[in-house]
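Let us begin with a simple case.
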Amino acid sequence: MLRVASVPFVSRDGDGAHNAAQVAACLADAARDGVALAVFPELCLSGYADITKLHRVSLEALAEPLDGASIRTVAAAVERTGVACGVGLIERAPDGRFFNSYVVCLPDGARHCHRKLHAADHRRMVSGDRYTVFDTGSGVRIGILTGGDSYLVENVRMTALLGASVLIAPHRTGRASPTGEHPVQPLPMMHRSRSPADADTMESMHGWLCARAADNGMFIVFSDGHEASNDQATDATALIVDPSGRVLAASETPGAYAAANLDLALIERSRGRQWLAARRPDLYALLAQPEADRSRVYEAQHASARGSVALGFAVVSRHRLMR
């Protein structure tokens, strides 16, 4: 049994020290509640719901290395409380590149970093190039997908195939539309449709998460952060889903986390794990071939006319009038 918490955290824009201190305070509360893992939103240490138009100078000021002050503050709180913790930040890599990164700190001092695979947050941010799955000291295998990473069906499936039984899915939603709805994140520019935007909102994403959990027989811990200014959040969401797609806990109150006990025995009994076992990987080799070669597999085969019988069909009403 693993007790987890999803925290709809209120960040202060551009104030990593304040945000890290608030995370540490939340971990102290979570420890008293018996929580073993606390999940905070994407970019919760950096703040800013929308960084798309930030000037390079502002982006550089927000960015921190993975061993920077904010992560050190969180890691110290994790070791002090014994509660593992996931937090997001703008990472400045040693080579100068910027990543939307998510770091999970474990009580034994280990840290695991996921770089967002589909980074469309800022033109200077680079997309990650690998899935992130790791084992914890308690024997639980955890995967991470940040923001729009979890929109793509195959990303969640690959994480499950790599053995993850719990998926951490931090998220960050931008400014609300005039109707008050919060849209999902955009894809990288090269993959966006030129047609008018559809009505996908966070409400529909919650349905997708439940479907992803059921398809793959895994728990999903989702934590979303919205725009924050002067510590006043416009909205926030926490969601924990079981391997059958049922919502175990939810919260829409900033600072009031959702917590649930994860019964890991449910994973092997789930339909999703049965479906994973029934896969036919031998059929998937086709996907590694060039598109031109793939298309030939589906070309219609020309059937011989020898021995064929001409058939004709007619649809006749059973109530037709006989003359």
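The second case is a distinct protein. As before, the sequence precedes its structure tokens.
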Amino acid sequence: MTRFGDFKPLCTNTPSYPLCNLFYRQLQHSAPTVLLNVSANATSAPIGVNPKCGIARVGSENSIGNIANILACGLSILVTVWLIYRCNYRKAAVGRIEFRAFLAVYLVTLPLQLIATGSFLEQGTTTLVAFTAIHAGAVTALFWMLLGNALVATQVVEDGQPSSLIPFYVLTAFFLAATTYISLDVALTFTSTFEPGDPKDSLHSISLFILTLIWPGVCVSLSLHSCPTYSCLTLFPVGSAALLYFILMVWIVVGVLHEMRPILYYALAGILFIFAQLAYFLLSRTICDGTSAKIDGSFIATALETATIVVLYFAWQRITEDHWPDDNLYFPQ
């Protein structure tokens, strides 16, 4: 029976799920006999713990790694750099600094994701664990920043000022540090807090589960009662933060700005985000099986997530100003 906080279903059925790197290292030192089949040999083991399908490490079995997602991450990096560059021209835009910071952290997650899921590094190595832990922390911080941008857009506090930026960056640092620390402790067990329980192959970590899949915890109790398995929980990682963001932005656009057209952008962004999760958690195994473990659905998810970011940028662009109203005023001499 799967318990709340068990990662076993994800690490078995979802190819290239990065957090499995942490549990592989944990089992390698605490219960190596649990690692079976393709996971038994760390030199060639794919991402996952006893996965039903996984892309072998680069160089073994003629594997070139998760090449499709590597290319998707590379293209996403270029797109995100362009968006950050474009942000610099919108000097009067509400939340410009905060939105640019959000894009910068998304940019950081892409090379981390590439390393954590690209099947470059040997399973169980400290290097792979470190990159995976930082990636987990960056993703958790990213979703706080998404929610933080919605809060900034309400103009409860003035954007770009210490009253906005200090809590924004402090909470970003908190989520980054907390998730990274817990991830490292899960893998390296340098304290007894996150040592594997019984059964060890359940890959149990409630703290990591909440931070990476449930954050910020809105409607957690409803999810648990409505989903006897973890299908609802695993389809939409950190979906609560995204849901809060979209609710706040719809209220701002319709209730405050009385605009309707930007809603189409936010609706499209929401749809793309949902499709990205569906592709990752439902299609990955199918694609992996169909291509004899050459690629999986992670590249589709990466492409759709980047498309979501692009649409969010255009939605933000629609509801903000390029320049201050008096920038183009002409004053005769």
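The chain has one domain: 8-318. Residues 216-238, 324-333 have pLDDT under 50 and may be disordered.
Keep these points in mind for the review questions at the end of the chapter.
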